[in-house]
Amino acid sequence: MSRSNIGTAHSCVRPAGKLLTNNAIKTVVAFPFALGAVYILLFLFGQFTVPIIVSTLLWGTLSGIGGDIIQYWVVSSAPEAPEFSNGLFLTVGNLGITVGAATGGLFISALGIPYFVFVGFLSLLVSLVFILIRTRIYTPQNRSTNLSAKQISG
User: Fold this and answer.
1) How far apart are alpha carbons 137 and 140 in whole angstroms?
2) Which residues cross the membrane (predicted)?
3) How big is the CA angle at 11 (ends 6 and 15), to the nearest 5 degrees?
4) pTM for this predicted structure
């Protein structure tokens, strides 16, 4: 990969770090909706060359941003164990790719290639449920209370 390509990729993902730093919860909650919009574009315009190129570029950019979001989300849940968090991130990421590819293959064989994006939609729905659960249960205020309680009892 040439140096100019690395710079371009880095400049596309850099805003994700700023978004996460400035308002992590809004960024994480908005992400499934942004990715869902790209899936709609892929499904509706998949047979046309130029729209599919644009959609694929958006999809790839959001994929990079999604990696940042997932890394932040996992590490922020256990900042006292960064090695464990990173291992969990890698394990879950690989498992997600495996399950997603297998499910996508089943959808393609049963419904045809245009319908592979439904696997993405289903994944987005499941992720949105878990995002909303975590934002309700595991807020920064609750985290500091939980840490204080653990420190007192332990």
Assistant:
1) 10
2) 28-46, 52-75, 87-107, 113-133
3) 145
4) 0.72
